[in-house]
Amino acid sequence: MKILVHDYAGHPxxxxxxxxxxxxxxxxxxxxxHGDHGPKGRLHRTSSDPVGLSxxxxxxxxxxxxxxxVKRRFDDVAYGKAVAQLVLALKPDLVISxxxxxxxxxxxxxxxxxxxxxxxxxxxxxxxxxxxxxLRKKMGAIGAGIGxxxxxxxxxxxxxxxxxxxxxxxxxxxxxxxxxxxxxxFTIENWGTLNExxxxxxxxxxxxxxxxxxxxxxxxxxTLALKHNPQxxxxxxxxxxxxxxxVVVSQGxxxxxxxxxxxxxxxxxxxxxxxxxxxxxxxxxxxSDVTVATIEPDAGMFSVPSKVQSYFCAQRxxxxxxxxxxxxxxxxRKNGAGIVVDPTDKGxxxxxxxxxxxxxxLRIGAAESGRKFALNNYDIKRVTDRFETVFQYAIDARxxxxxxx
Length: 405
Prior knowledge:
Helix content is about 50%, strand content about 15%.
C-alpha cells in the first residue's frame, strides 16, 4: 500500500513503525511537524533504510507559540491545512495520524476522505479532554465552552475514521462511547525502540563529557510540560543535594520553572540540559542510576508517559509519579520495574527516591525486570502485524462505505 504515517511529534517509536512497514514493501511517507521541539526519532533516511521510505517535515511560516492560546489555535489550523495538502498531493491508500491538535486533525480527516484514502486515528491522548480541563481552569465558563467545541470536533473525527487505534484499554472505553461501530476500536500499546536503545555502560563518553561520570544520577528525559509537575524534580534535587544529581534532559514550559528554582534556591545538583540528538539517547539513559517520570492526576486519564518505554529498553529502574490507573503505572508495578507513587504524595515520592538510591539490589532487579518486559513486548515485527490487521479493517470499512454511499 501507499501509506502516510503522520505523527505530529515525530517520536521514535512511530518512526520505528514506518521503517518496518516500508521493509514489508509498503511505500511509506512519514510526516511530522518540523516546528515541534520535543523528543524526535531518527527522521532521516540511512543507507540501510528500505527504498520505499521517505520523510517529510511539515513547516509553518512562523515559530510555533505554545504559550499563546490564540496564536496556537491559528497555527494549528494552518498546520492542518499544510498536512491536508500533503494528503491530497500524495493520494495515499491509507493515512494514520496521531499526536495531532484537534483542529489540525479535522483537516487531515477531511483531506483523507476527499482523496479516497482510508483514515486511521491513532489516539495517543485525548486532546479535547486535555484542552477542556486546561481551558476550564484558565478561563472558566468560556474555557468550558471552547473545550466543548473541541470535544465536538474530536467526536466527529472518531465517527469519520475507518479505524481507531488507542494505546490503552482505558482509552478504548472512552472511544467506544463516542462511536457507534465499537469493533473499529483497537488497542495497541506503545512500545520502546528496542532496535535503537540497548543497555550501555553508565560511564560512557556522553556522561563523561557532561561531568556525570562517577556520580549517582536521577534522570528525567523527554518533554517537561506543566502536566508533568516539574516541582517534584525541584524537591527531589533538594532532597538528594550532596548525595546525587537530578539530571533533566528536556524542553518545554516546565524547564523554565526548573531554571528559576535552580537559580533562586542555588540547587547546583539540578543539572539542566537540552534535548539531545536521538543517536545519543541510549548513552543519555545509560548515565542514569534511576530514571524518573511524572504526570499529574488530571493528565493521567488522557495521557501515558511514553518515556517509560525507553527507560525499560535502556535497562534502568523507574521512579514514577502517576495515578494508579495510568497504563504506565500498571506496567511498572505489575512487572516490578521500579516504584510507583501517587503524584500528589510528595513525601512518598522522595522516600521512594531515597529507597532506590540506597538499595542496589532493588535497582538492579527493577532494571532487569523492565528490560525483560521490553524484550517480551516491544518486537516491532509483532507490533506491525497488529497494525496491518487494523489497516485491513480500515480498507474493508472504506470499501463498504464507498459501496453504500
